[in-house]
Amino acid sequence: MLIDGTERAASSGETLTVHDPATGDSLTTVAAGTEADVNEAVDVAWDGFETWYGYTPARRCEILNDVARAIRDEKDRLARIETLENGKPLSEAVGQVERCARHFEYYGGLADKIEGESIPLDDGHVDYTIREPLGVTGHIVPWNVPAYLFARSVAPALAAGNAAVVKPAEETPVGALELTKLLHENGVPPAAVNVVPGEGVPAGSALSGHPDIGSVTFTGSSATGREVGKAAIGNLTEPHLELGGKSPLVIYDDADLDVAVDETIKGIFATNSGQVCSASSRVIVQSEVHDAYLDKLVSAVEALSIGPGIDDHDVGPLVSATHLDTVAEYLEVGREELGEPLTGGAVLDREGYYVEPTVFADVPQDARILQEEVFGPVLTVSTFDDEAEAIQRSNDVDYGLVAGVITTDMGRAHRFARDVDAGQIYVNEWFAGGNETPFGGYKDSGIGRENGTQAIHNYTQLKNVCLNISE
User: Fold this and answer.
1) Residues annotated as region Disordered (predicted)?
2) Residue 471's pLDDT is what?
3) Does 285 share its domain with 154?
């Protein structure tokens, strides 16, 4: 772990083994943090906060931009680490490290622009607001996009003047440790960012329930998010929860089917093997083009290459043997509910944790494999007849993270955006938007928004000052 800039063992002496999902082989070991380690990291972070918040906003801006440049200089090495830990194609990992750098750049640009407001009351008063940092913030980072999601919460927290304690996922801790070293090497005080790898229990639960942090940011499953939220609220700590998704991609009969297939592939198969909360995991296609769409889709899916991410195949392995078992169980659920998939459906008999890209067709709305988040390369395809049914099917799940529509009718697209219960609406492109656009969900998909200027509000508290200036 990395506390006050020093690499150290866990207080218990225990370690975690990090595996290469492409082979199942051990890559390295890291410290397995305990509650005592988290407590120490939080204590140290308060010292780091005093130093970091003492810097002028302009100085914090300069440092965070230096961090962004350093990450870009190390982009190839950091991407290789992400691929070896996570399994994703190397070109995708390069893109995610670039997004990580861009996040520090973006919030570096905001560090000296966090402003309050003047509120007009009457001639006898001056009233204004101040945005102040929370102090120490907690960050529980998932394994699916580890570099970018490290930056997504740590960068705005630092821009606002906070210090941070980070608990990376046990599957992918190395990238967080290496990123933090770059922060320290480029001007962030060592005590201001501390990393405690470890299991969800004890390390994650100790951080989410710590009484001396101002907020906890968690990205992961809805079930775990509820527990993190309960632990935080128990201390009146503000939780920011970006949770699961079961996101619909609606394809109308006026859609360019080649575009529709490309966006489907990108959304569920060619991005981290479907291990993305915002994956386009269920397609709802208008009946008139259902058969033509499926013909094109199956041809495209069967042309995808599957193999080690380090060799930059289209589809890499799943992150772990445990997760492979989970996805394999859903494949069997799908077979029990629906019969054989249209294509794919096999766990590959080779080293590593590989599942074929899989498409189940003609899936009813109440099927488990349509309603539940699989978090793998498994797609359901359903049909609809008219616009009302498309909206109804889109909304008829517990999640509300993302929804997309492919159509040339912009009136229809805007009605879709108005009527679908999701935090992000994509039109004619999946994964639209960027670091600058707010991201988060409705319903079981979470609480709060990351990205954009909105994220600064997650890591500040508002103070009102009112002065009586009457004679």
Assistant:
1) 1-24
2) 85
3) no
